[in-house]
Amino acid sequence: MGLAADVGTLQILPKSITNHSLFRELVFTARSFDTNEAQQIGLLSRVFDTREAV
Known about the structure:
Blueprint: H1 9-16, H2 20-29, H3 35-40
């Protein structure tokens, strides 16, 4: 999943990622992370094992 920083994302993300240090790390480094980490930090509510499971 990619997020563009030009459509209000930088204003909305701190509400989802309450750890401000992690928020800054993701914004400034643009590092990749997997679905498990995305769910752990609050960007995803659920992860499915397969496309068919959706």
